[in-house]
C-alpha cells in the first residue's frame, strides 16, 4: 500500500487487484474534520463513505477492498433495488 499526504487529501492506494481507495480530509463549517473514502475499481461503481476518524476510514477501506476482491461485496445500489415484496415473492416461488 502506498500512502501519499498532500495538503488536505490523503491518497491511500492499494496496488494489488487494481482497486484504488482515496481518503480525503475535509473540514466542515463547524470546524469538525471528517474523512471521505472513495473506492474505485474499473467496471464497478465507486463506493463512498464518510467517517469522523481516519482509523475508521482506513478500516472500512481495507474491509471493502477485501470484500470486492473476494467477490463478497454486494453493491449498495443493487441492494436498494430489491424490496421486501421482491424477497417475499422469491421465497414463495
List the helices and strands and how they pair.
Elements: E1 2-6, E2 9-13, E3 20-27, E4 33-41, E5 44-51, H1 54-70, H2 76-81, H3 84-92
Antiparallel strand pairs: 1-2, 2-3, 3-4, 4-5
List keywords for this structure.
single chain; 93 residues; five-stranded antiparallel beta sheet
Overview of this structure, please?
There is one protein chain. By secondary structure, the chain is of the alpha+beta class. The chain has 3 helices and 5 strands, in the order βββββααα. A hairpin with a 2-residue loop joins strand 1 and strand 2 (about 10-15). About 10% of the residues are buried. The model has no long low-confidence stretch (mean pLDDT about 80).
Report the strand count: 5
What characteristic shape results from the CA principal axes? Answer: extended
Q: Pairing-aware structural class of the strands and helices?
A: alpha+beta
Q: What is the string of helix and strand elements?
A: EEEEEHHH
**Percent of sequence in beta strands:** 35-45%
Q: Which strands sit side by side, in order, in the main sheet?
A: 1-2-3-4-5
Q: Which range best describes the helical content: under 10%, 10-25%, 25-40%, 40-55%, 55-70% or over 70%?
A: 25-40%
Gap between N and C termini, in Å? Answer: 46 Å
Poorly predicted residue ranges: none
Number of helices: 3
Largest sheet: 5 strands, antiparallel
